[in-house]
Amino acid sequence: MGLESQERTLVHVLARAVEQHRDKPWIVTENISLTYGEVDLLSNRVANGMTVLGIAPGDTVLFMLPDTPDFVATWVACSKAGAVEVPVNTGYRGDILVHVVNDSRARTAVVDAQFLERFEAAADRLEHLERCFVMSAPGEEMPATPELARKCELLPYEDLLSNNENAPDHSPVISDLKAIMYTSGTTGASKGVMVAHGHAYEYAAGAATVLEIKEDDVYYTAGLPLFHIAGKWGAIFAVALVGATAAFPQRFSASEFWNDIRKYGVTTTFLLGAMANFLQRQPASPDDANNPLTKVLMCPLLPDVGDFAKRFGARIATAYGSTEVNGTMYMPLGTKVEDIQVVGPVRSDKFDVAVVDENDNVVPPGTLGEIVVRPKEPWISMLGYWNQPEWTVRMWRNQWLHSGDAGRYDEDGNYYFVDRIKDAIRRRGENISSMEVESVISQHPAIAECAVYPVVSEYSEQEVGTAIALKPGETLEPVDLISFLEPRMAHFMVPRFIVFEEALPKTPTGKIQKYSLRERGVTPETWDREAAGVKLSR
C-alpha cells in the first residue's frame, strides 16, 4: 500500500499517516479522541523513555492493559524502540499468567493497576521480572503488593514518559521480531508465536483489503480486545494504512451495539459468529437497516447470513487465518454464499494453500484434509514458536505450515474451513463439522451456548456429543431439543449424547475447552438418545 517492502512496519505506516492525516482522529472512545499526530508524539515520549531506561532493541516487554488509547500509544512505542511486545490476555491469572511471564523472559512489564494483585499472588514464582510500570487513573493509589515489591521494582507509568517528543533513532525493518503472541493453549501450555513486523503488516493489509477500508471509514472494534491480533492488527493497524478511524468501547454489548454504531458513525466492523448470532436474536425493529454500517467481516458465517445482511443493510465478507499463518483467504463483501463453511479463494499473490492427508499428500477436490499454508514473500508468516523448537519443526514440516484445521476445496478454487482437526467427527462414514452442528443447536431460544465434540462409539468411529449451557431461567428437555434439531440438520448430525452444564469449561481467552469434554466422555449425567429409545425420522 505505497510503502517499500522494508518499510512495511507499524512505525513507517504511522509516519505516513501523520504526514497525510495528522489532525484526523485515529482512536475514538467514549471519553477520548486522539489524532494520528497526538498518538505519534505520545508514543515518541514512551519509546524515548524506554531507551533512556535501558530497554534495548530485541528486549521483550510484557503488557497487561485494558483497551485504552494509552495501550495503543505504548504498543506503538515498543515498535519505535525496537522492543518486542508480549501482550497478555486480561483474563489470565494463576498458572497460565506465570507461564507467559516466565516463558517470555520479560524483565519489564507495563501493567494496569487493576491487574496488579494477580502478579502479587504469583510473585514468588516470577523468574525474570525486574521492574513493573503501573498504569493507574489520576488520583488512584497503587495497590499494596509487598511480595511483588520484594521481587521487582514498582514504578508509576509516568516514569516511562520522556519529555523528548522527537522520533527515536531506531527504525525497524520487516524481518525484525515485533511481537510474541501467546496462543490460547486449548491442548496444553500456551505457545508464543514469534511475529515479524512484515507479518503484522500483511495481516493488517489483508483486513483492510477484505473490508475495502477507505479513508472516510469508521471501524468499530467491540469484542476485539487489543491483546488479540484481530483487534490490534486487523482493526487499529488496518485503519492506519488508509488514514481511517477506529472506535472502540470497553466491551461488546448486543443491546448497545446499534446505538454505538449510530453514535460513532460506524461503517465497518468484524463480528465473530457468536456476536452476530447475539445481534440476530435481538427483537426485530422496523429501523434495523437504518444505520451507517455497510461492511461486516463475519467469521464463521451464520446459517442465516443472508437474512442478517438484508435485515441490517450490510454486505458480508468472511475470511480464514490465524496468528501463525496470517490471513490467507477471504470471500469478498456481498458474495452470495451457498455453503457457510466457505472462506473464499486464496490470496494467491501472497500465499500458496493446499489440503493434505496425514502423509502431507495433496487430496482431490471435495476431500477432507488438513489446511496447509506456504508464504510467497518472506516474513509474512510466523517465525516459529518462542522457546519451542520441537513445536516449530512439527508445525513447519515438509515446507508447509500446518494449520491444524480440517478443510476442503472445490474445483473453482474456493476453500472451506470445516473444523479444528481434533474437533471434527467421523460417524458411520460421514464427516461432521462440530461447528456446523453448534450453529444449528445455538438457534434454540433457550440455549446460551453449546459445544459439540466426538464421543467414542461402541460401534467403532465416533458419535456426536454436545454440552449445553441454558440461558438463566430456561429449561429444556433433551427430547425437545432433538425435535427442534431433526428438521434442521441431516439425521447423522443429530447428537446422540446431550449433557446440560451450568457453564462450559473455557480457557482464559474464552474459548471452550473441548478437549476436556472429549476426555470426560459419557458421564452418569449424560442423556443417551439411543438408550432413551428416541428414534429419528429420516
The number of domains: 3
* Second rung of CATH, namely the architecture of the largest domain: 3-Layer(aba) Sandwich
Report the sheet-strand fraction.
Answer: 25-35%
- Our count of helices gives 15
Number of strands: 27
Low-confidence stretches: none
Q: Give the class from helix and strand content and strand pairing.
A: alpha/beta
* Shape descriptor: globular
| CATH class category name of the largest domain | Alpha Beta
Helix content: 25-40%
- CATH topology assignment of the largest domain: Rossmann fold
CA-atom Rg in angstroms? 24 Å
Biggest sheet strand order reads 2-1-11-10-12-13-14-15
Oligomerization state? single chain
Span between N and C termini? 54 Å
Q: Let me know the average pLDDT.
A: 92
User: How is the biggest beta sheet arranged?
Assistant: 8 strands, mixed
3D architecture notes:
By secondary structure, this protein is an alpha/beta fold. It has three domains: 5-197, 3-Layer(aba) Sandwich (Rossmann fold); 271-381 and 401-421, Rossmann fold, CATH 3.40.50; 425-528, 2-Layer Sandwich (GMP Synthetase, Chain A, domain 3). The chain contains 15 helices and 27 strands. The chain has an eight-stranded mixed beta sheet with strand order 2-1-11-10-12-13-14-15. Strands 4-3-5-6-7 form a five-stranded parallel beta sheet. Strands 16-21-20-18-17 form a five-stranded antiparallel beta sheet. Strand 22 (425-427) and strand 23 form a beta hairpin. Helix 1 (10-21) crosses helix 8, helix 2 (36-52) crosses helix 3 (69-81) and helix 7 packs across helix 8. It is globular and about 75 Å long. The mean pLDDT is 92.
